[in-house]
Amino acid sequence: MDKGNRKKVGLLGGNFNPIHHAHLMMADQVAQQMNLDKVLLMPENIPPHVDEKETISAKHRVKMLELAIKENPRLGLELIEIERGGKSYSYDTLKLLTEANPDTDYYFIIGSDMVEYLPKWYKIDELLKLVTFIALRRKDTISKSPYPVTWLDAPLLPISSTMLREMFAKNIEPTYFLPQNVIDYIKTEKLYKKR
Q: How far, rounded to the nearest angstrom, does the alpha carbon of residue 89 sit from its chain's CA centroid?
C-alpha cells in the first residue's frame, strides 16, 4: 500500500480512573506534534500492573472518557481491551488492531517514566514490530532507551488519578484538574466515595 495513504493513529492506553487534563493534554499534544490523524484513548480492562480493587467498572471509565473527549475531534476511543475482556497486554491488543487495520500505522504513547520499564513489557520485541513508541520527555527522567522511542517535548501536568480519587473521597472537588462534565458525572454516580 502507498505509504501516503496510510492512517497515523496514536494510542494512549491507561486505566483512566478517572481521566484528567494531563491525559488529555498528552494525547492532544502528540496528535498535533506528530501530525496524527487521531489519538485514541484506550482504557484497559484488567491492567496487568494495577490492583483491581482500585479500579471502578469499565462502564464508568468509558463514560468519563466519552464526556472528556467529546469536544476534541483529534481524540477518540478504542475499546478493544474492554470488549476483549481479561488482562490487557499491549502486544495482544496491537496484534489484533494491526490485523484488523492493515492500512494504519500505530503510535503508542507513554510517559517518559514508562520507558525504563519497556524491557519488562510482555513480548516487547514483537510489539516493536507493530508500533512506534512516542514518549513525552520529563525534566526528571533520562531520555534514553535501548528500544527505538520517539521523544517529544510537551508540558506535563503533575496530576494523578490516585490524587483525584483521594480528593473525591475527602469531598474536595478537583476543579480544573479534569473536565467539569467528568466531575459532574463522578458526583452524580457517587464514584470514589469512601465506603
A: 13
C-alpha cell read off for 62? 468509558
Which residue type does 133 have? F
Q: State the Rg of the chain over Cα.
A: 17
What is d(CA 106, CA 30) in angstroms, rounded to the nearest whole number?
A: 12
pLDDT tens-digit profile of 110-139?
A: 988 888 889 999 999 999 999 999 998 876
pTM for this entry: 0.91
Largest CA distance in the chain: 56
Domain 6-158: homologous superfamily in CATH: HUPs (3.40.50.620)
Distance, C-alpha 95 to centroid of its chain: 18
H-type helices in the chain, by residue range? 21-33, 58-69, 80-84, 90-100, 112-115, 124-127, 161-169, 180-189
